[in-house]
# Entry
Amino acid sequence: MKIHAKDDFPVAGVRRFLEPGPIVLVSSAWKGERNIMTMGWHMIMEFQPSLIGCYIWSENHSFDMVRKSKACVVNIPTVDLAAKVVGIGNTSGRDIDKFAAFGLTAQPAAKVDAPLIGECYASFECRLVDASLIRKYSLFVLEVVKAHAARSPKYPRTIHYRGEGVFMLSGANTSRYRKLFKPQML
Ligand SMILES: Cc1cc2nc3c(=O)[nH]c(=O)nc-3n(C[C@H](O)[C@H](O)[C@H](O)COP(=O)(O)O)c2cc1C
# Structure
């Protein structure tokens, strides 16, 4: 197998290789206001309870909306929403109502005040369960308390940010290596 010759790489740039989970839209509500932000920096921390860690920059309007309401919805957009995803990331809820500006449908959630985004393939209602790392790392630990997902397709065409304005589109799947997995790792 090929050994890759590697150059020095700037440490601040490694995000380009590690980031590509799906880009999500985080919706929130606080004191009669609603908002949406685009997010790439998130990770699974546990599956039972279902915990997600995510980074929200303190300058974002969403920062206080999620921190104060202690809730949000993590919505999964597909490639047809890519232009809106970028537009939502370029603007702030301080200045505009992004649901209206981007023609998105706010739907009531079951367990939190934040709205679901109707046009997204899946929406996960979340409660902020640990705020202890927000001050130091802007890291919000969320628990998914209710999940909604479209029935098909099984593998939606999600978008994954590679930095420098480039999205990777989710594509081919293979089950070729499935037999190599320990059953408990599936
Ligand atoms: C592809 C993409 C990924 C982004 N990922 C994050 C992220 O993980 N965390 C974050 O705080 N901001 C992220 N942003 C920036 C926010 O979406 C942006 O600052 C947004 O305008 C904040 O909106 P708000 O002020 O209404 O909360 C991202 C933007 C783009 C376009």
Remarks:
- The pocket of flavin mononucleotide is lined by residues 23, 35, 37-41, 55-57, 60-62, 86, 89, 91-94, 161 (CB under 6 Å).
